[in-house]
């Protein structure tokens, strides 16, 4: 298996907090250790650097505690960036901050016509875009994704509110292989996944409940929550090298490694 060098965008959790509840993971009454969240995030960033990847950073904005979850800031493929429109007003001000960063970085910009929460719900798998819907990103946005990026879009219907974004229920391991939790998808979407990825890795509920599928793969190395031991073992059996990280503090808001990581695909040569 060959690793592909990646370029990522991340946001330091300087202002991380759980001040509201917009998913089942969030409990505003439970205390949050911001210093621990920063240390765990810094460890994730260092793992990427040690693997030879490039990490860009967007400046955190006071009052936007979920801005650390950079994957929701946009979708970037072949040098084009689609900005986002969040479902919840608590996150709305993240959208212009990320859009400004993409524009300054020189990406060709597109604005969403419907609710679209970026790479949280849009995953490039080979020559297809897997696009989640059911809780956040609107199904109507999938047509625009296809028009902007020129990849066939496959709709994935999510059915379990704990796995409210596609990247909490499925991870792309390489151009031909994914790992996913079957129970997180509707029967029709499960059938599509079986047809598209007959050799997929099936995660257990126990590993999904620690956000084990919220992982980042470069085609050889898979960075995932260290608590997802069963999934890690399955991936190693398939020949992947796994790297466990502890993002338990950020999990209080429903985020893991992938949530913190937006892939910046500059051009077709970097697919």
Structure notes:
By secondary structure, the chain is α/β, with parallel strands linked by helices. Helices cover 22% and strands 20% of the residues. The chain is built from six helices and 15 strands. The model has no long low-confidence stretch (mean pLDDT 97).
Total beta strand runs: 15
Percent helix range:
10-25%
Low-confidence stretches: none
> Over all CA atoms, what is the radius of gyration?
17 Å
Order of strands, main sheet, comes to 2-1-15
In whole angstroms, the N-to-C terminal distance is 16 Å
Quick description:
This protein has 271 residues and is of the alpha/beta class. It has helices at residues 34-50, 94-104, 141-149, 187-196, 205-208, 229-237, and strands at 7-10, 54-57, 75-77, 80-82, 108-110, 122-125, 128-133, 153-157, 170-172, 178-180, 201-202, 216-217, 221-225, 241-245, 262-263.
Index terms:
about 270 residues; alpha/beta; globular
């Amino acid at each position: 298996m060959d690793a592909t060098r990646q370029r990522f965008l991340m946001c330091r959790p300087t202002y991380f907090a759980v001040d509201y509840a917009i998913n089942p993971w969030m409990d505003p009454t439970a205390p949050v250790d911001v210093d621990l969240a920063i240390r765990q995030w810094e460890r994730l960033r260092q793992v990427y650097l040690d693997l030879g990847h490039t990490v860009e950073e967007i400046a955190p904005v006071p009052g936007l505690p979920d801005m650390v979850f950079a994957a929701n800031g946009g979708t970037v493929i072949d040098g084009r960036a689609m900005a986002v429109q969040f479902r919840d007003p608590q996150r709305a001000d993240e959208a212009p901050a990320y859009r400004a960063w993409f524009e300054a970085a020189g990406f060709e910009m597109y604005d969403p016509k419907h609710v679209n929460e970026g790479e949280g719900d849009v995953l490039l798998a080979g020559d297809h875009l897997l696009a989640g819907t059911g809780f956040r990103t609107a199904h109507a946005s999938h047509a625009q994704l296809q028009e902007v990026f020129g990849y066939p879009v496959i709709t994935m219907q999510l059915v379990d509110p704990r796995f409210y974004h596609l990247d909490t229920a499925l991870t792309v391991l390489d151009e031909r292989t994914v790992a996913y939790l079957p129970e997180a998808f509707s029967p029709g979407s499960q059938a599509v996944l079986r047809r598209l990825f007959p050799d997929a890795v099936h995660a257990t509920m126990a590993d999904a409940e620690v956000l084990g599928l919220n992982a980042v793969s470069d085609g050889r190395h898979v960075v995932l929550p260290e608590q997802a031991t069963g999934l890690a073992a399955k991936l190693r059996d398939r020949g992947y090298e796994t790297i466990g990280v502890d993002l338990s503090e950020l999990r209080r808001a429903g985020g893991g490694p992938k949530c913190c990581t937006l892939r910046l695909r500059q051009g077709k040569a970097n697919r």
